[in-house]
Amino acid sequence: MSSTWQSLLQRQRGLGRSSGRRGLVLVELLLLLLVLLLAMVLLFMGLGRIRHQARLEQFGADMQAFAKVFEQARAGNGRWPATAEEAGPPRLDERWADGSDFGGEYGWVPPDAAGRPGMITLTAFSPNFPLELARADLLVIDRRIDDGDLATGRFRTGFNGWPVYLVGGNP
C-alpha cells in the first residue's frame, strides 16, 4: 500500500513541476502575439502601398476621362470650351470639382490661336489643397497613360512641377 501512495505522491509532485511550464506557455503566447502584431503591421503597410497605387491609377484614368469630355465638347460645339463649366458640368463628374485624391484643384486652359494644345492642370495654389504627388508618382502615372517621360507627350509636368495633361493638337 505504501508503494501505491508513494507513486501517487510522485505523480502529484510531477504535476506540480509542470506548473513551472505555465510560465513558459505565457512567454510563448506573448511571442506569438508579437509575431501576429508584426504580421499585421506589415500587412497594413502593404495595403497602404496598394491603396496608393490604386489612387495613382484612378488619377491617370481621371485625366484621360476629363480630356475626352473636352474633346467631346469640341466635337459637339465645333470649338473648344472656354471654361470647364462650358464643357458641361454634368459631363465632368464630382471628381473634377473635388480635386484629386492627392489634393490640388483641376483647371482647364483651352487651346490658343497659336496652335498650342489645351491643358488640364492640377495645381495647388490654395493651402487648403496641398498637392501630395511626388515626382516618382508622376512617373508611374506617365508610364501608365503616356510615354514615360515627364518632359514630353500628353502627360507632363508644367509650372512648379505640377502635372498637366495636354488636350488637342500635337503635344
Notes on the structure:
- This protein has four helices and four strands; from the N terminus they run H-H-H-E-E-H-E-E.
- The N and C termini lie far apart (103 Å).
- Strands 1-2-4-3 form a four-stranded antiparallel sheet.
- It is α+β, with helices and mostly antiparallel strands and 171 residues long.
Q: Key terms for this structure?
A:
single chain, 171 residues, alpha+beta, four-stranded antiparallel beta sheet, 53% helix
Question: What fraction strand?
Answer: 5-15%
- Helical percentage: 40-55%
Rg from alpha-carbon coordinates: 31 Å
Distance between the termini: 103 Å
| Main sheet: strands, sense, barrel | 4 strands, antiparallel
Total DSSP helices: 4
> Strand order within the widest sheet?
1-2-4-3
- Find the structural class using helix and strand composition: alpha+beta
- Shape assignment: elongated
- Count of β-strands: 4
Provide a concise account of the structure shown.
The chain is an alpha+beta fold.
